[in-house]
Fold:
Amino acid sequence: MTLEMYRHGDVGLVRCDALPLNAQREDPPQPDIVLAYGEVTGHAHRILAPHKVSLWNAGQQRYILVEDAPATLTHEEHGPMTLEPGVYEVRIQREYGLGGEIRNVAD
Amino acid sequence: MPTRKAARRGKLERLTPDQEALLPAVRDEWIAIGLDTRPSDRPAAERGVAEMYRRGGLEPPTRIVWCGSPLSMALTRAMVLDRAKGRDSVWDSVRDSVWDSVRDSVWDSVWDSVRDSVGDSVWDSVGASVGASVWASVWDSVGGQHDSNWLAHFDFFQRIGLTRQTEKLAGLWQLARAAGWALPHERICWVSERPNLLQLEAVPARGPFANQLHCEDGPALRYPDGWAIYSWHGVRVNEDVITCRPSSITTKRILGERNAEVARVLLERMGAERFATEADGAKVVHRDIDGNGNGSRLLSIPMPNMPDREARVVVVQCPSTDRQYVLGVPPWVATCQAAVAWTFGVDEPGKKDGELIMLKEQ
Structure:
């Protein structure tokens, strides 16, 4: 399997052709769309002013849909990343623990 | 007549040169207030509390209880009351009403320029580092000196003549200049001392006023009652992570740490080089140069007691921050690239090594 990915710290975005048919729109609890929060730093991977961006779920997978105009993904420590219009699958970086458990990277 | 008067008074359209010149003075004054580590001026703070209640339309409290830190303040309150109403009902409404009336009196461009040159700078210097760390432990309070970013913003408007619109803040300004946090309640107000130790480092990359808590050998923030926050370049950690001797940090401790940022702090204290070379019997399985020109290494460290009998880790460098991270990967991964690909979910059953093409990294 080959993946083409945009990487923003511990968040990966895989460009897709379209949303899955079973995708459901998620209503973000706040005005900005936050893809991941840092547990100890309080930093966030955040899409600013996302009026043309929506968040979708299909099973365990999350997707973002960027419509019409490019959106900007920001973080307190990483440079801003421009996302051209399209569909992206959100992948949170994971790690393999000493006991063989798989966990998300909590930064 | 009233209509003409309103039209003449109008909204504040632009700042005069004198007003512009006041911006840095107000900014610097409130940064100093926010970072003040002197003992509280208790009489002044108590007058401020009484004023704060009156301006919020309430009777001043019959008792003011002083606490040695925001944490003991919150704990004391919790022992006496069960989630009493305080901030939500009154203090947010005070702020909101001042916010609205100043907003109505100035044009967006003036509001924005004051916010950019005063509020945001004070936030970078005080709120983002110290205020946010304390807030994480003591929510639901009035931030006092650590509210200085928005108090500064309105103080500027007060000083250029918007006194009526900002008058409700008089008590909050006075409290912030004299003490730390406060928990206002109907009859009692708990007030915290200011910190007596504060260690910050500048973060020029985030702006000219940006700070973060950092101390390599002790607390970065401490209050008179001993409550302290330990922080390594802005990452809040347990005391032990800072105070333990670097030579006592083991590869096993780093690999077993659940939080990647804390593991990174331990790794930085231990040194990635030492980790890679001194880990008992560590073998370099693969070496690579990533798309940003940074070296990465895939290591295998023998762990006889663990189910896989080894820890396989990839040591990578973040292109934005240049920090090194150590990420655990499964023992069947053979290359650095496959290791990074695995961390992003490329592990299709039946396919050996997934391939990951990084189009852009930040």
Remarks:
- The two ends of chain A are 27 Å apart (CA to CA).
